[in-house]
Amino acid sequence: LLLRWRRRRGLWRKVAEAQERQERSLVQMETAVQRFREQNPSVNVVSILSLPLPELSKKLRDGSLPLDHVFYSYVGKALQIATETNCITEYLQESENQLRKAKLTGKQGLLYGVPVSIKDSIDCQGHDSTMGFIKYLNKPAAEDSVVVQVLRRQGAIPFVKTNVPQSLISYDCKNLIFGQTCNPLLYTRTPGGSSGGEGALIGGGGSILGLGTDVGGSLRFPAAFCGVCALKPTGNRLSKRGIQSGVVGQKAVAAAVGPLAKDVESLALCMRALLCEDMFSLDSTVPPLPFNEEVYSSTQPLRIGYYETDFFTMPSPAMRRAVREMKQLLEEAGHTLVPFELTNVDYVIFNFCVRGMFADGGTSFVKKFNGELEKGSTGLFFWLAKSPHWLKTLLSWIAKPFVPRFSSIIGSMKANTVSEVWSLHHEIEDFCHQFIAQWKKLNLDVMLCPMLGPAFGIGYPGKVSVAVSYTMLYNALDFPAGVVPVTTVTDEDEEELKDYKGYYRDWWDRTLAKAFSGSVGMPVAVQCVALPWQEELCLRFMKEVETL
Q1: What percent of the chain has pLDDT over 90?
Q2: pLDDT band at 375 (very low <50, low <70, confident <90, very high)
Q3: Which of 171, 297, 316, 334 has CB atoms 3.0–4.6 Å from 516's, for a disulfide?
Q4: How confident is the prediction for the chain on average, in pLDDT?
Q5: Does 483 count as an annotated binding residue?
Q6: Residue 195 assigned to a binding site
Q7: Could you tell me if residue 249 is inside a domain?
């Protein structure tokens, strides 16, 4: 007992040190901004912060905007948003040296002088990638991840790291070390996760471009919940070298790294910058496909598949309306919209996603929590992963007639043999080819899909983990998918929500109705999807949606 008490005291000490470091980071930011403002009292911060990224980067490159004016304007705004939402875990103080060097050399890349925020789990040399775990504190990365190296070579200045939920397997944004991050649009709401710090910072205007990761919607939830744009590319379009993940080695559900920004043009600029020779030579496992300008800038009318529901998670009235209104606008603009029949999403979620991510019965997931003080917002998964096989089987059997979805989740979390995992991978491949065949039969270019929203109240994502169905489908398929905010919740949506029952009418559906409510004025997005490796077409479609 004494040993355990000592160990726990040691862990709490580490947490306290990390919190002090976070606090010191904000003080460093404040000092830097104050010093700059005293030396440059006439800088128009508001006009700098109002510039869209393409315009800002052009002005930085042609010298009409000084680098330090832009940098310190964003450091100041980021500090304000961090104070309001608790989204920043660390200030990368070396960014000030990089700024000085950039001014001296004047060597210009596509993102010359652009301050960029980085998700906690993406390695930056000399800084922790904690994933919200105490065990990863004080273990600074030996080198930058490939994407951060490429950003630097393109002239960008990574300046802060942002908060995540413990383990990253959550779409809330809370951990024991840095605490809860709030939504900048409404502090009682979650910013989404797991790239929640990014969503909050960019949604609040404290960063103009950020990098996050996505294994079930972790880029798309924060973007949709905070009213910004994001792109989850095909899993291997951008390098994942030097990026930490919640479940290492699983191949069933494809993770991806991608950008978040206020608008689509900014996402395209970031992809253009990353898809360069530098990235292809730093990571030769990434296909050397440069950004295809022709596809992105095409104005050909599109053939667009669409659906309003996946028949698994009943959409909120605002989600359904977002797809309907967008469909109409796209048709009026000369595009063709074709209904797409989605089937068996329940099977995909339970048998491909849950079973794929926890194919070892959750052993590696549980191991991550060994020696931690808290098990975070992954409640149900953690508890199930820890349960012995016989208990899972028994619970699954008992629950089946009353709560079939709960029964399916328990059943999906059994440990598999190697041959069962292989056959699962084969089944996922088959499903992907069938999905593409259906897509080709309808002769589609892209697909318009619902995106979960509006933002849930803090704590709700942990209670309704099943609502990842709209996003996680495209991790299982490994298709590029982006989100664009298109509307806000109206009083009528709120009124209609009173009749929300869900498809299963179980505890999750009842909880979802509560999670959606009280959100008048909050943003709602749609999801834009393309076939694998068609990021440029996906962005082109997103741009169309944004314009309309």
Answers
A1: 90
A2: low
A3: 316
A4: 96
A5: no
A6: no
A7: no
Is 121 tagged catalytic? no
Which pLDDT value is given to residue 392? 84
Element counts in the chain: helices (H) and strands (E): 24, 13
pLDDT tens per residue, range 476-508: 999 999 999 999 999 999 999 999 999 999 999
Alpha carbons within 13 angstroms on the beta-carbon side of residue 319 total 27
Q: Which of 25, 145, 218, 396 is catalytic?
A: 218
Considering the domain architecture, whether residues 87 and 186 belong to the same structural domain is answered as yes
Q: Is 543 a known active-site residue?
A: no
Residues 271 and 174 placed together within one structural domain of the fold? yes
Same domain, 55 and 130: yes
pLDDT for 21-71, tens place per residue? 999 999 999 999 999 999 999 999 999 999 999 999 999 999 999 999 999
Same domain as 511, residue 382: no
Count other C-beta atoms under 10 Å from residue 35's C-beta: 11
Average pLDDT of the residues in 79-88: 98
Number of domains composing the chain: 3
217 is known to lie in a ligand binding site? yes
Do 397 and 446 fall within a single domain?
A: no
Residue 354 lies in a domain: no
Domain co-membership, 88 together with 120: yes
Determine if residue 194 is labeled as part of a ligand binding site. yes
Q: Is 194 a catalytic residue?
A: yes
- 304 with 276, same domain: the answer is no
List all residues 6 or more positions away from 126 whose beta carbon is below 8 Å from its beta carbon: 94, 140, 141
Given the residues 119, 174, 232, 240, select the one marked as catalytic: 119
CA distance 183 to 165: 14
Give me the residues paired with residue 523 across strands: 488
Asked, for residue 240, whether it belongs to a domain, the answer is no
Above 70 in pLDDT, residue 138? yes
Under DSSP, is residue 273 helix (H, G, I), strand (E, B) or coil? helix
Determine if residue 216 is labeled as part of a ligand binding site: yes
- Residue 59 domain-assigned (yes or no): yes
User: Annotated catalytic residue: which of 129, 194, 407, 408?
Assistant: 194
